[in-house]
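Task: fold both queries, return C-alpha coordinates.
Query 1:
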Amino acid sequence: MKKNSKINRIRGWALALVFIGMIIMYIGVFFRQYPIVFSIFLIIGFIPIILSFIVYFWIGMLSTKTIQVKCPHCEHYTKMLGRADICSNCNEAITIDPELDGKEFNEDYNNRRKREKLLQEDENKIN
Protein backbone atom coordinates (compact mmCIF):
# COMPACT_ATOMS: atom_id res chain seq x y z
CA MET A 1 0.00 0.00 0.00
CA LYS A 2 1.34 3.43 -0.94
CA LYS A 3 2.12 5.68 2.00
CA ASN A 4 0.31 9.03 2.09
CA SER A 5 0.42 11.97 4.43
CA LYS A 6 -2.32 12.05 7.03
CA ILE A 7 -4.04 15.07 5.49
CA ASN A 8 -4.19 13.44 2.05
CA ARG A 9 -5.43 10.16 3.57
CA ILE A 10 -8.32 11.94 5.31
CA ARG A 11 -9.16 13.85 2.13
CA GLY A 12 -9.21 10.53 0.27
CA TRP A 13 -11.79 9.15 2.70
CA ALA A 14 -13.92 12.26 2.25
CA LEU A 15 -13.79 11.85 -1.53
CA ALA A 16 -14.78 8.19 -1.17
CA LEU A 17 -17.80 9.27 0.89
CA VAL A 18 -18.92 11.55 -1.96
CA PHE A 19 -18.76 8.70 -4.47
CA ILE A 20 -20.51 6.28 -2.11
CA GLY A 21 -23.34 8.77 -1.69
CA MET A 22 -23.62 9.29 -5.43
CA ILE A 23 -23.71 5.54 -6.08
CA ILE A 24 -26.47 5.06 -3.51
CA MET A 25 -28.46 7.89 -5.11
CA TYR A 26 -27.90 6.42 -8.56
CA ILE A 27 -29.25 3.06 -7.39
CA GLY A 28 -32.38 4.94 -6.34
CA VAL A 29 -32.95 6.02 -9.95
CA PHE A 30 -33.80 2.41 -10.80
CA PHE A 31 -36.78 2.70 -8.45
CA ARG A 32 -38.38 5.79 -10.05
CA GLN A 33 -41.74 4.09 -10.31
CA TYR A 34 -41.80 3.69 -6.50
CA PRO A 35 -41.57 7.24 -5.10
CA ILE A 36 -41.11 6.14 -1.48
CA VAL A 37 -38.18 3.80 -2.27
CA PHE A 38 -36.71 6.42 -4.61
CA SER A 39 -36.89 9.05 -1.85
CA ILE A 40 -35.32 6.71 0.70
CA PHE A 41 -32.34 6.02 -1.58
CA LEU A 42 -31.89 9.75 -2.20
CA ILE A 43 -31.96 10.54 1.50
CA ILE A 44 -29.63 7.67 2.42
CA GLY A 45 -27.26 8.72 -0.39
CA PHE A 46 -27.31 12.30 0.81
CA ILE A 47 -26.01 11.30 4.27
CA PRO A 48 -22.46 10.28 3.11
CA ILE A 49 -22.27 13.46 1.03
CA ILE A 50 -23.06 15.55 4.11
CA LEU A 51 -20.52 13.52 6.12
CA SER A 52 -17.88 14.21 3.45
CA PHE A 53 -18.65 17.91 3.69
CA ILE A 54 -18.10 17.74 7.45
CA VAL A 55 -14.82 15.82 7.00
CA TYR A 56 -13.58 18.29 4.36
CA PHE A 57 -14.48 21.21 6.63
CA TRP A 58 -12.79 19.55 9.62
CA ILE A 59 -9.57 18.74 7.73
CA GLY A 60 -9.54 22.27 6.33
CA MET A 61 -9.71 23.73 9.83
CA LEU A 62 -7.10 21.25 11.02
CA SER A 63 -4.89 22.10 8.07
CA THR A 64 -4.76 25.76 9.10
CA LYS A 65 -3.32 24.76 12.50
CA THR A 66 -0.60 22.43 11.23
CA ILE A 67 3.05 23.35 11.03
CA GLN A 68 4.86 23.57 7.73
CA VAL A 69 8.23 21.89 7.50
CA LYS A 70 10.72 21.73 4.68
CA CYS A 71 11.28 18.18 3.55
CA PRO A 72 15.01 17.33 3.66
CA HIS A 73 14.65 15.02 0.65
CA CYS A 74 12.72 17.07 -1.93
CA GLU A 75 13.15 20.58 -0.41
CA HIS A 76 9.38 21.29 -0.67
CA TYR A 77 7.31 22.60 2.20
CA THR A 78 4.69 20.20 3.52
CA LYS A 79 2.08 20.34 6.27
CA MET A 80 2.66 17.93 9.10
CA LEU A 81 0.27 16.40 11.64
CA GLY A 82 1.86 14.88 14.75
CA ARG A 83 5.51 14.12 15.43
CA ALA A 84 6.01 11.84 12.45
CA ASP A 85 4.34 12.12 9.05
CA ILE A 86 5.05 11.58 5.38
CA CYS A 87 5.97 14.31 2.91
CA SER A 88 3.01 14.96 0.61
CA ASN A 89 5.35 15.54 -2.35
CA CYS A 90 7.94 12.74 -2.23
CA ASN A 91 6.30 10.34 0.30
CA GLU A 92 9.42 10.21 2.48
CA ALA A 93 9.10 9.98 6.26
CA ILE A 94 9.71 13.26 8.10
CA THR A 95 9.75 14.06 11.80
CA ILE A 96 10.12 17.07 14.07
CA ASP A 97 11.18 14.94 17.05
CA PRO A 98 14.98 14.56 17.34
CA GLU A 99 14.49 11.17 19.09
CA LEU A 100 12.84 9.78 15.96
CA ASP A 101 15.31 11.18 13.45
CA GLY A 102 16.80 8.41 11.34
CA LYS A 103 14.35 5.76 12.50
CA GLU A 104 11.99 3.90 10.20
CA PHE A 105 8.57 5.56 9.88
CA ASN A 106 5.85 4.16 12.09
CA GLU A 107 2.41 5.69 12.57
CA ASP A 108 2.54 4.70 16.25
CA TYR A 109 5.16 7.39 16.97
CA ASN A 110 2.29 9.91 17.12
CA ASN A 111 0.65 8.10 20.07
CA ARG A 112 2.44 8.81 23.37
CA ARG A 113 2.08 5.34 24.95
CA LYS A 114 2.92 3.49 21.76
CA ARG A 115 5.87 5.83 21.04
CA GLU A 116 7.36 5.22 24.50
CA LYS A 117 6.92 1.48 24.05
CA LEU A 118 8.58 1.55 20.60
CA LEU A 119 11.47 3.68 21.86
CA GLN A 120 11.92 1.31 24.80
CA GLU A 121 12.00 -1.67 22.44
CA ASP A 122 14.62 0.12 20.31
CA GLU A 123 16.77 0.72 23.40
CA ASN A 124 16.48 -2.95 24.37
CA LYS A 125 17.63 -3.98 20.88
CA ILE A 126 20.67 -1.72 21.17
CA ASN A 127 21.60 -3.02 24.64
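Query 1 returned. Query 2:
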Amino acid sequence: MESLEMLNLSYNNLSGVIPRCFEEMHGLLQIDISYNRLEGRITNSAMFRDAQLAALQGNKGLCGDIRGFPSCMSYKKASRKIWIVIVFPLLGMVALFIALTGFFFIFRQRKNDSQTKQSSFGNTPGLLSVLTFEGKIVYEEIISATNDFNAEHCIGKGGHGSVYRAKVPSGEIFAVKKFHSPLPGEMSFQQEEFLNEIQALTEIRHRNIVKFYGFCSHPKHSFIIYEYLESGSLDKILRNDASAKELGWTQRLNVIKGVADALFYLHNNCFPPIVHRDISSKNVLLDLEYEAHVSDFGIAKFLNPDSSNWSELAGTHGYVAPELAYTLKVTEKCDVYSFGVLALEVIKGKHPRDFLFEMSSSSSNMNIEMLDSRLPYPSLHVQNKLMSIMQVAFSCLDQNPESRPTMKRVSQLLCEKIFEV
Protein backbone atom coordinates (compact mmCIF):
# COMPACT_ATOMS: atom_id res chain seq x y z
CA MET A 1 0.00 0.00 0.00
CA GLU A 2 2.99 2.33 0.39
CA SER A 3 3.27 2.66 -3.42
CA LEU A 4 -0.40 3.67 -3.81
CA GLU A 5 -0.63 7.20 -5.22
CA MET A 6 -4.35 7.69 -5.94
CA LEU A 7 -7.38 6.36 -4.03
CA ASN A 8 -11.06 6.98 -4.87
CA LEU A 9 -13.56 5.92 -2.18
CA SER A 10 -16.41 8.25 -3.20
CA TYR A 11 -20.06 7.13 -3.11
CA ASN A 12 -19.34 3.99 -1.04
CA ASN A 13 -21.76 4.69 1.83
CA LEU A 14 -18.82 4.57 4.25
CA SER A 15 -19.43 5.61 7.85
CA GLY A 16 -17.31 6.30 10.89
CA VAL A 17 -14.10 8.29 11.17
CA ILE A 18 -11.23 8.59 8.71
CA PRO A 19 -8.68 5.88 9.70
CA ARG A 20 -5.35 7.11 11.05
CA CYS A 21 -3.57 4.63 8.80
CA PHE A 22 -3.90 7.15 5.99
CA GLU A 23 -1.27 9.27 7.75
CA GLU A 24 1.24 6.44 7.26
CA MET A 25 0.59 6.16 3.51
CA HIS A 26 3.28 8.64 2.53
CA GLY A 27 3.11 7.73 -1.15
CA LEU A 28 -0.60 8.61 -1.39
CA LEU A 29 -0.87 11.88 -3.32
CA GLN A 30 -4.57 12.13 -4.08
CA ILE A 31 -7.68 10.84 -2.29
CA ASP A 32 -11.42 11.24 -2.88
CA ILE A 33 -13.81 10.36 -0.02
CA SER A 34 -16.74 12.50 -1.19
CA TYR A 35 -20.40 11.57 -0.62
CA ASN A 36 -20.12 9.04 2.18
CA ARG A 37 -21.31 9.24 5.80
CA LEU A 38 -17.95 9.94 7.39
CA GLU A 39 -17.62 12.16 10.44
CA GLY A 40 -15.09 13.33 12.97
CA ARG A 41 -11.75 15.03 12.48
CA ILE A 42 -10.17 15.21 9.03
CA THR A 43 -6.73 13.61 9.20
CA ASN A 44 -4.01 16.25 9.41
CA SER A 45 -1.89 15.04 6.52
CA ALA A 46 -0.76 16.70 3.30
CA MET A 47 -3.10 14.72 1.06
CA PHE A 48 -6.14 16.03 2.97
CA ARG A 49 -4.80 19.57 3.47
CA ASP A 50 -4.14 19.86 -0.27
CA ALA A 51 -7.31 18.04 -1.37
CA GLN A 52 -9.95 19.92 -3.32
CA LEU A 53 -13.25 20.60 -1.58
CA ALA A 54 -15.03 18.36 -4.13
CA ALA A 55 -12.97 15.39 -2.89
CA LEU A 56 -14.24 15.80 0.69
CA GLN A 57 -17.78 17.15 0.28
CA GLY A 58 -20.92 15.17 0.97
CA ASN A 59 -19.84 14.11 4.49
CA LYS A 60 -21.90 16.23 6.87
CA GLY A 61 -20.08 15.04 10.00
CA LEU A 62 -16.52 15.97 9.05
CA CYS A 63 -14.65 18.78 10.78
CA GLY A 64 -11.10 20.09 11.02
CA ASP A 65 -8.72 22.84 10.01
CA ILE A 66 -9.60 22.46 6.33
CA ARG A 67 -11.12 25.27 4.30
CA GLY A 68 -14.87 24.78 3.95
CA PHE A 69 -15.28 22.63 7.10
CA PRO A 70 -16.12 23.64 10.69
CA SER A 71 -13.48 23.30 13.37
CA CYS A 72 -13.72 20.33 15.72
CA MET A 73 -14.99 21.38 19.17
CA SER A 74 -14.45 17.99 20.75
CA TYR A 75 -13.00 14.85 19.19
CA LYS A 76 -14.47 12.79 22.01
CA LYS A 77 -17.97 13.97 21.12
CA ALA A 78 -17.43 12.84 17.57
CA SER A 79 -16.26 9.43 18.82
CA ARG A 80 -19.43 8.96 20.82
CA LYS A 81 -21.49 9.85 17.76
CA ILE A 82 -19.68 7.24 15.70
CA TRP A 83 -20.85 4.45 17.99
CA ILE A 84 -24.44 5.67 17.62
CA VAL A 85 -24.16 6.07 13.84
CA ILE A 86 -22.81 2.54 13.38
CA VAL A 87 -24.76 0.55 15.95
CA PHE A 88 -28.27 1.99 15.68
CA PRO A 89 -28.61 1.69 11.89
CA LEU A 90 -27.39 -1.92 12.13
CA LEU A 91 -29.97 -2.69 14.81
CA GLY A 92 -32.60 -0.95 12.73
CA MET A 93 -31.77 -2.99 9.66
CA VAL A 94 -31.98 -6.24 11.62
CA ALA A 95 -35.37 -5.26 13.03
CA LEU A 96 -36.54 -4.19 9.59
CA PHE A 97 -35.51 -7.49 8.03
CA ILE A 98 -37.38 -9.47 10.69
CA ALA A 99 -40.49 -7.34 10.26
CA LEU A 100 -40.38 -7.55 6.47
CA THR A 101 -40.16 -11.34 6.67
CA GLY A 102 -43.26 -11.34 8.84
CA PHE A 103 -45.00 -8.95 6.50
CA PHE A 104 -44.53 -11.12 3.41
CA PHE A 105 -45.70 -14.18 5.38
CA ILE A 106 -48.86 -12.35 6.42
CA PHE A 107 -49.36 -11.15 2.85
CA ARG A 108 -49.22 -14.71 1.49
CA GLN A 109 -51.57 -15.92 4.19
CA ARG A 110 -54.07 -13.22 3.29
CA LYS A 111 -53.86 -14.02 -0.39
CA ASN A 112 -54.87 -17.62 0.25
CA ASP A 113 -57.51 -16.78 2.78
CA SER A 114 -61.04 -16.50 1.37
CA GLN A 115 -62.60 -15.19 4.58
CA THR A 116 -64.07 -11.74 4.58
CA LYS A 117 -61.75 -9.08 6.01
CA GLN A 118 -62.90 -7.42 9.19
CA SER A 119 -63.84 -3.79 8.78
CA SER A 120 -63.52 -2.83 12.42
CA PHE A 121 -60.14 -2.28 14.04
CA GLY A 122 -60.68 -4.10 17.33
CA ASN A 123 -57.26 -5.52 18.13
CA THR A 124 -56.08 -4.36 14.69
CA PRO A 125 -56.19 -7.80 13.00
CA GLY A 126 -53.75 -8.24 10.13
CA LEU A 127 -51.84 -5.13 11.16
CA LEU A 128 -48.11 -5.11 10.71
CA SER A 129 -45.95 -2.02 10.92
CA VAL A 130 -42.23 -1.40 10.75
CA LEU A 131 -41.39 1.60 12.85
CA THR A 132 -38.32 3.27 14.27
CA PHE A 133 -37.71 5.73 17.10
CA GLU A 134 -37.80 2.92 19.66
CA GLY A 135 -41.42 2.11 18.81
CA LYS A 136 -42.75 5.53 19.79
CA ILE A 137 -44.69 5.83 16.56
CA VAL A 138 -47.65 3.50 16.45
CA TYR A 139 -50.50 2.92 14.11
CA GLU A 140 -53.02 4.73 16.29
CA GLU A 141 -50.81 7.83 16.45
CA ILE A 142 -50.69 8.10 12.67
CA ILE A 143 -54.46 7.71 12.42
CA SER A 144 -54.95 10.35 15.13
CA ALA A 145 -52.38 12.76 13.65
CA THR A 146 -54.12 12.70 10.27
CA ASN A 147 -57.64 12.62 11.75
CA ASP A 148 -58.22 9.30 10.00
CA PHE A 149 -56.63 10.69 6.81
CA ASN A 150 -58.84 13.74 6.63
CA ALA A 151 -58.46 15.96 3.56
CA GLU A 152 -57.30 18.91 5.68
CA HIS A 153 -54.03 17.05 6.35
CA CYS A 154 -53.48 16.07 2.70
CA ILE A 155 -50.42 17.73 1.13
CA GLY A 156 -50.33 15.92 -2.21
CA LYS A 157 -52.10 13.42 -4.45
CA GLY A 158 -50.85 10.89 -6.97
CA GLY A 159 -52.23 8.21 -9.24
CA HIS A 160 -52.25 5.51 -6.56
CA GLY A 161 -52.08 7.36 -3.25
CA SER A 162 -52.28 10.59 -1.29
CA VAL A 163 -49.64 12.09 1.01
CA TYR A 164 -50.55 13.44 4.45
CA ARG A 165 -48.74 15.54 7.02
CA ALA A 166 -48.71 13.78 10.39
CA LYS A 167 -47.51 15.43 13.60
CA VAL A 168 -47.27 12.79 16.34
CA PRO A 169 -47.43 13.50 20.11
CA SER A 170 -43.62 13.60 20.37
CA GLY A 171 -43.67 16.68 18.14
CA GLU A 172 -42.05 14.95 15.19
CA ILE A 173 -43.59 15.47 11.77
CA PHE A 174 -43.78 12.80 9.09
CA ALA A 175 -45.12 12.44 5.57
CA VAL A 176 -47.50 9.49 5.24
CA LYS A 177 -48.31 8.10 1.81
CA LYS A 178 -51.66 6.31 1.98
CA PHE A 179 -52.50 4.07 -0.94
CA HIS A 180 -55.97 4.51 -2.43
CA SER A 181 -58.52 1.79 -1.77
CA PRO A 182 -58.34 -0.36 -4.90
CA LEU A 183 -61.22 -0.81 -7.28
CA PRO A 184 -62.32 -4.33 -8.24
CA GLY A 185 -59.53 -5.95 -10.22
CA GLU A 186 -56.89 -3.47 -9.02
CA MET A 187 -55.96 -5.24 -5.79
CA SER A 188 -52.97 -7.14 -7.15
CA PHE A 189 -51.49 -4.05 -8.82
CA GLN A 190 -51.91 -1.93 -5.69
CA GLN A 191 -50.26 -4.58 -3.54
CA GLU A 192 -47.45 -4.93 -6.07
CA GLU A 193 -46.75 -1.20 -6.04
CA PHE A 194 -46.92 -1.07 -2.24
CA LEU A 195 -44.49 -3.97 -1.83
CA ASN A 196 -42.26 -2.67 -4.61
CA GLU A 197 -41.83 0.70 -2.93
CA ILE A 198 -41.05 -0.90 0.43
CA GLN A 199 -38.48 -3.20 -1.14
CA ALA A 200 -36.78 -0.31 -2.94
CA LEU A 201 -36.70 1.97 0.10
CA THR A 202 -35.23 -0.68 2.39
CA GLU A 203 -32.37 -1.21 -0.07
CA ILE A 204 -31.23 2.40 -0.34
CA ARG A 205 -29.70 5.08 1.84
CA HIS A 206 -28.56 8.36 0.32
CA ARG A 207 -28.73 12.02 1.36
CA ASN A 208 -30.65 12.91 -1.83
CA ILE A 209 -33.24 10.13 -1.49
CA VAL A 210 -36.21 10.54 0.85
CA LYS A 211 -35.70 8.79 4.18
CA PHE A 212 -37.93 5.78 4.88
CA TYR A 213 -39.22 5.27 8.45
CA GLY A 214 -41.71 2.45 8.14
CA PHE A 215 -44.87 1.04 6.66
CA CYS A 216 -48.22 -0.38 7.68
CA SER A 217 -50.41 -2.97 6.01
CA HIS A 218 -53.95 -3.24 7.30
CA PRO A 219 -57.28 -4.36 5.76
CA LYS A 220 -58.47 -0.76 5.97
CA HIS A 221 -55.25 1.21 5.40
CA SER A 222 -51.91 0.63 3.70
CA PHE A 223 -49.40 3.42 4.06
CA ILE A 224 -45.70 4.24 4.06
CA ILE A 225 -44.01 6.66 6.46
CA TYR A 226 -41.33 9.05 5.17
CA GLU A 227 -39.42 12.02 6.47
CA TYR A 228 -41.37 15.25 6.08
CA LEU A 229 -39.70 17.77 3.78
CA GLU A 230 -40.88 21.26 4.55
CA SER A 231 -40.58 22.97 1.17
CA GLY A 232 -42.65 20.39 -0.68
CA SER A 233 -42.30 19.25 -4.27
CA LEU A 234 -40.17 20.97 -6.88
CA ASP A 235 -43.22 21.09 -9.15
CA LYS A 236 -45.21 23.03 -6.55
CA ILE A 237 -42.37 25.49 -6.01
CA LEU A 238 -41.83 26.20 -9.71
CA ARG A 239 -45.56 26.69 -10.33
CA ASN A 240 -45.75 29.46 -7.72
CA ASP A 241 -44.08 32.75 -8.68
CA ALA A 242 -43.23 33.72 -5.10
CA SER A 243 -41.63 30.40 -4.17
CA ALA A 244 -39.91 30.13 -7.57
CA LYS A 245 -38.17 33.45 -6.92
CA GLU A 246 -36.91 32.07 -3.60
CA LEU A 247 -35.30 29.18 -5.47
CA GLY A 248 -32.32 31.13 -6.81
CA TRP A 249 -29.74 30.05 -9.35
CA THR A 250 -27.36 28.59 -6.76
CA GLN A 251 -30.16 26.53 -5.19
CA ARG A 252 -31.30 25.33 -8.62
CA LEU A 253 -27.80 24.18 -9.53
CA ASN A 254 -27.67 22.20 -6.28
CA VAL A 255 -31.10 20.66 -6.94
CA ILE A 256 -29.91 19.40 -10.33
CA LYS A 257 -26.69 18.07 -8.80
CA GLY A 258 -28.60 16.37 -5.95
CA VAL A 259 -30.94 14.49 -8.29
CA ALA A 260 -27.99 13.44 -10.45
CA ASP A 261 -26.16 12.09 -7.40
CA ALA A 262 -29.25 10.15 -6.28
CA LEU A 263 -29.62 8.50 -9.69
CA PHE A 264 -25.89 7.75 -9.87
CA TYR A 265 -26.26 5.99 -6.51
CA LEU A 266 -29.29 3.96 -7.62
CA HIS A 267 -27.64 2.87 -10.87
CA ASN A 268 -24.15 2.15 -9.55
CA ASN A 269 -24.19 1.58 -5.78
CA CYS A 270 -27.24 -0.68 -5.50
CA PHE A 271 -27.23 -4.36 -6.40
CA PRO A 272 -29.11 -5.10 -8.47
CA PRO A 273 -29.22 -1.59 -9.97
CA ILE A 274 -32.47 0.30 -9.45
CA VAL A 275 -34.16 2.32 -12.21
CA HIS A 276 -36.56 4.86 -10.70
CA ARG A 277 -38.72 5.13 -13.86
CA ASP A 278 -40.66 8.18 -12.67
CA ILE A 279 -38.22 11.06 -12.26
CA SER A 280 -40.26 14.27 -12.46
CA SER A 281 -40.56 17.57 -10.62
CA LYS A 282 -43.49 16.12 -8.64
CA ASN A 283 -41.26 13.36 -7.28
CA VAL A 284 -38.41 15.62 -6.17
CA LEU A 285 -38.97 17.03 -2.68
CA LEU A 286 -37.01 19.88 -1.10
CA ASP A 287 -36.18 20.58 2.54
CA LEU A 288 -35.86 24.04 4.10
CA GLU A 289 -32.35 24.41 2.66
CA TYR A 290 -33.62 23.39 -0.79
CA GLU A 291 -31.69 20.13 -0.73
CA ALA A 292 -33.25 17.74 -3.26
CA HIS A 293 -34.67 14.35 -2.22
CA VAL A 294 -35.94 11.86 -4.81
CA SER A 295 -39.20 10.17 -3.76
CA ASP A 296 -41.95 7.77 -4.96
CA PHE A 297 -40.43 4.40 -5.83
CA GLY A 298 -43.78 2.74 -6.57
CA ILE A 299 -42.83 1.75 -10.14
CA ALA A 300 -39.07 1.42 -9.61
CA LYS A 301 -37.46 -1.49 -11.43
CA PHE A 302 -34.68 -3.75 -10.15
CA LEU A 303 -32.40 -4.66 -13.06
CA ASN A 304 -31.76 -8.31 -12.30
CA PRO A 305 -29.04 -9.81 -14.53
CA ASP A 306 -31.06 -13.01 -14.99
CA SER A 307 -34.20 -11.14 -16.10
CA SER A 308 -35.24 -9.61 -19.42
CA ASN A 309 -36.21 -6.34 -17.63
CA TRP A 310 -39.17 -5.78 -19.95
CA SER A 311 -42.08 -3.91 -18.42
CA GLU A 312 -45.28 -2.07 -19.26
CA LEU A 313 -45.08 1.62 -20.15
CA ALA A 314 -45.15 3.69 -16.95
CA GLY A 315 -44.06 7.07 -15.68
CA THR A 316 -45.14 10.71 -15.89
CA HIS A 317 -46.08 12.05 -19.32
CA GLY A 318 -43.42 14.41 -20.63
CA TYR A 319 -40.57 12.69 -18.81
CA VAL A 320 -40.74 9.17 -20.27
CA ALA A 321 -37.91 8.15 -22.59
CA PRO A 322 -39.19 7.90 -26.20
CA GLU A 323 -37.80 4.40 -26.80
CA LEU A 324 -40.18 2.97 -24.18
CA ALA A 325 -43.06 3.54 -26.59
CA TYR A 326 -41.80 0.74 -28.82
CA THR A 327 -39.30 -1.37 -26.85
CA LEU A 328 -40.71 -1.46 -23.29
CA LYS A 329 -37.24 -2.51 -22.13
CA VAL A 330 -36.22 -0.69 -18.96
CA THR A 331 -32.59 0.46 -18.68
CA GLU A 332 -30.71 3.10 -16.71
CA LYS A 333 -30.82 5.31 -19.82
CA CYS A 334 -34.57 5.76 -19.24
CA ASP A 335 -33.77 7.64 -16.03
CA VAL A 336 -31.04 9.59 -17.85
CA TYR A 337 -33.62 10.95 -20.31
CA SER A 338 -36.03 11.90 -17.51
CA PHE A 339 -33.17 13.66 -15.71
CA GLY A 340 -32.41 15.69 -18.84
CA VAL A 341 -36.01 16.90 -18.95
CA LEU A 342 -35.95 17.73 -15.24
CA ALA A 343 -32.66 19.65 -15.47
CA LEU A 344 -34.05 21.88 -18.23
CA GLU A 345 -37.27 22.35 -16.25
CA VAL A 346 -35.32 23.58 -13.22
CA ILE A 347 -33.38 26.08 -15.34
CA LYS A 348 -36.33 27.17 -17.47
CA GLY A 349 -38.77 27.30 -14.55
CA LYS A 350 -41.37 25.19 -16.34
CA HIS A 351 -41.59 21.94 -18.28
CA PRO A 352 -39.64 22.34 -21.56
CA ARG A 353 -42.27 20.55 -23.68
CA ASP A 354 -42.06 23.07 -26.55
CA PHE A 355 -38.31 22.75 -26.62
CA LEU A 356 -38.49 18.94 -26.60
CA PHE A 357 -40.81 19.09 -29.61
CA GLU A 358 -38.32 21.32 -31.43
CA MET A 359 -35.52 18.90 -30.59
CA SER A 360 -37.43 15.96 -32.06
CA SER A 361 -38.37 17.80 -35.26
CA SER A 362 -35.29 19.89 -36.00
CA SER A 363 -31.99 21.08 -34.61
CA SER A 364 -32.49 23.35 -31.63
CA ASN A 365 -29.86 25.60 -30.13
CA MET A 366 -29.65 26.44 -26.48
CA ASN A 367 -29.56 30.11 -25.58
CA ILE A 368 -29.62 32.29 -22.52
CA GLU A 369 -33.30 33.17 -23.15
CA MET A 370 -34.18 29.68 -21.90
CA LEU A 371 -33.50 30.85 -18.33
CA ASP A 372 -36.39 31.44 -15.92
CA SER A 373 -37.27 35.11 -16.39
CA ARG A 374 -38.68 35.34 -12.86
CA LEU A 375 -35.15 35.31 -11.42
CA PRO A 376 -32.60 38.14 -11.62
CA TYR A 377 -30.31 37.90 -14.62
CA PRO A 378 -27.36 35.74 -13.53
CA SER A 379 -23.77 36.90 -13.45
CA LEU A 380 -21.49 35.88 -16.32
CA HIS A 381 -19.89 33.24 -14.09
CA VAL A 382 -23.27 31.68 -13.26
CA GLN A 383 -24.38 32.01 -16.89
CA ASN A 384 -21.44 29.89 -17.98
CA LYS A 385 -22.34 27.23 -15.42
CA LEU A 386 -25.97 27.19 -16.54
CA MET A 387 -25.02 26.91 -20.20
CA SER A 388 -22.65 24.04 -19.40
CA ILE A 389 -25.37 22.21 -17.47
CA MET A 390 -27.86 22.72 -20.29
CA GLN A 391 -25.31 21.14 -22.61
CA VAL A 392 -25.15 18.11 -20.30
CA ALA A 393 -28.97 18.00 -20.18
CA PHE A 394 -29.14 18.02 -23.98
CA SER A 395 -26.83 15.03 -24.17
CA CYS A 396 -29.23 13.19 -21.82
CA LEU A 397 -32.09 13.82 -24.27
CA ASP A 398 -30.47 12.08 -27.22
CA GLN A 399 -33.10 10.04 -29.08
CA ASN A 400 -30.66 7.13 -29.17
CA PRO A 401 -30.40 5.73 -25.61
CA GLU A 402 -26.95 4.29 -26.33
CA SER A 403 -25.66 7.80 -27.06
CA ARG A 404 -26.80 9.21 -23.72
CA PRO A 405 -24.19 9.48 -20.96
CA THR A 406 -24.43 7.34 -17.84
CA MET A 407 -25.53 9.00 -14.60
CA LYS A 408 -22.02 8.41 -13.29
CA ARG A 409 -20.65 10.54 -16.11
CA VAL A 410 -23.41 13.12 -15.67
CA SER A 411 -22.66 13.42 -11.94
CA GLN A 412 -18.96 13.87 -12.64
CA LEU A 413 -19.59 16.53 -15.28
CA LEU A 414 -21.98 18.46 -13.04
CA CYS A 415 -19.49 18.37 -10.19
CA GLU A 416 -16.87 19.87 -12.49
CA LYS A 417 -19.24 22.51 -13.87
CA ILE A 418 -20.94 23.55 -10.63
CA PHE A 419 -17.96 23.57 -8.28
CA GLU A 420 -15.40 24.97 -10.69
CA VAL A 421 -13.82 28.20 -9.43
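Both queries returned. Flag for query 2: The chain is about 35% helix and 15% strand.
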